[in-house]
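Quick entry between incubations.
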Amino acid sequence: MALGKGRLEAFSDGVIAIIITIMVLELKVPHEESLEALKPLIPVFLSYLLSFVYVGIYWNNHHHTMQAVRSINGKILWANLHLLFWLSLIPFVTAWMGENHLTQWPVFFYGIVLIMNGIAYRILALSLIKHHGENSLIAQAFGNDFKGKISVALYAVAIICTWLNPTISVIIYVVVAGSWFIPDKRFERLLESE
Amino acid sequence: MALGKGRLEAFSDGVIAIIITIMVLELKVPHEESLEALKPLIPVFLSYLLSFVYVGIYWNNHHHTMQAVRSINGKILWANLHLLFWLSLIPFVTAWMGENHLTQWPVFFYGIVLIMNGIAYRILALSLIKHHGENSLIAQAFGNDFKGKISVALYAVAIICTWLNPTISVIIYVVVAGSWFIPDKRFERLLESE
Amino acid sequence: MALGKGRLEAFSDGVIAIIITIMVLELKVPHEESLEALKPLIPVFLSYLLSFVYVGIYWNNHHHTMQAVRSINGKILWANLHLLFWLSLIPFVTAWMGENHLTQWPVFFYGIVLIMNGIAYRILALSLIKHHGENSLIAQAFGNDFKGKISVALYAVAIICTWLNPTISVIIYVVVAGSWFIPDKRFERLLESE
Amino acid sequence: MALGKGRLEAFSDGVIAIIITIMVLELKVPHEESLEALKPLIPVFLSYLLSFVYVGIYWNNHHHTMQAVRSINGKILWANLHLLFWLSLIPFVTAWMGENHLTQWPVFFYGIVLIMNGIAYRILALSLIKHHGENSLIAQAFGNDFKGKISVALYAVAIICTWLNPTISVIIYVVVAGSWFIPDKRFERLLESE
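Done. Structure below.
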């Protein structure tokens, strides 16, 4: 009897649900009732929107990936916790970026957290592939993971860009998010053909 | 093998559970021990009550709807996340309305968030119907969704009313909530007849 | 096909887990490092402990009760949400009582919230019994619910006592909690005999 | 019919997910955008990292242990809630230690909470073994629980060390965490051989 994946999914759902929801607490309620009182919240709101999409992408991909998983082991549990750790830092960098409108360091650290999440997801994928074998459904579904690698490369470019123009960096973050918005058809196709 | 609905339900339960609970954090604990210290909290409490009922209605309807769902796809995952995004803004507008006792802009944005939730639910319903087919249980259960459409229309009326008298707008929100309080018999009847 | 109880359990677990955990946020971290800095936190900590036990009791009883439930309906969903509403107010009254060391009004409202929770649980029980029938396992397990009724009566006594001596009220709360600490054997016995 | 373990797992997942995530809220967003603004957050971040690993270890061990559990009873529910209570205090001591960089009392109470968690886990294990019998899978998996006992002993040493040098205490906490980082092979081996 191998370790089941049920609780790993349930725990990840719980943590990701909390991460995606506590970000909204940074939208501090203004004490005034005027329309102008909302203006300073616009960049905070846009940061929230971007991060909501990113966390949503991770949950989506996690959901698709785990669908193809048959069993897990102790290493996979830690690879998953490692991913959750970097995801848990998204609310912090989101709030920092939201408060300081596209200045270098907040945008820089937002990129660092994104790149670490990308790497953590890759580590989780590799530990899943190793556990299931090179011919497994999950190994085929990831393939050479071109999309994952190009995303990490683009985050790196964006991080460097923060020295030149942080706005370009944020545009890159938005573009990468957009490219992942389309759910990972690889898994759906493979699962259907099964 | 199609994508299962289990994790979509679990994740939605998690997010909705957090949304419904963090609203209570706006009931800031008074530093004094007198009965008068609670007075300023009365509008905050009433806002909380209204929003608790609204979030409860969405959870209830989500529960009933998903009961008739057989499988999901990537588009449905995003339609669901889109609904959760608008639900996640309810605590913010609740707190703003609670602090500023029925003045125009807080009541206006409360209505905007309600109308966006109504639209997001409709989008989710349409993507579920498209996936299951026009003759599916879920398509029959929604029917022409008269109740959903009339609610969105009433939210629109309420939003316009904020220029005239925000109190009327809030009365409309309360009336619409009351009409949804009665659980969606359509699903129960159809599920029973199955 | 009747409505399943799975999501009602999952959603309740989520809400109760959040309630029991956010109470700890009232233990504000002292800025000083001395042992004395913890002293003002002692009543806050004791309030937290009492409320943790109360919320734990409700989760425990909910778990035991739902074990005997076969299916649910829309009314039961709302009876359950009603219970969750009153449970969600426990962190607020806990924090208020913790800050104001056993003075009348905080202790009074703590009792009000406890009595409303007791009544809400009774309403949930009655709606479950009505749905399952008078000869059902769940009806037998509740019996005449002597323990539930006596608790509500004691909360009422404690609420009145706040005018005389709030300390007595708190002692009553502790005693009632102690009496529920012992898990509800009725359900375990009935479930085993099944 | 015995009490199922499903909800105990789901509720524990919920509480642990919240505990591990709310700790990140102590990383207060700086109002400035400079790199220097992050400096005071470094000890807070390191405390967060250590506590994330500790909570992760408990979740991991809980997951492995519950995998071997067949059924539960009322006592086990309370032993589990008792563990969750001590886990819920980790965010508080983490934040206090993070703010006061390795001074005696924060490090002392961090150790107290760790030792109480170790003891609570032992009580849970004993109540599970008692329920399943001395020859059960779970009794074999725990064995004499050498690792658990040595950890509690080391926490005790670390607590005493806070009078001499709190830095040594923190090093002990890190070393013990490291020794648990490796997942509990006992359960995996036993479950596989089953």
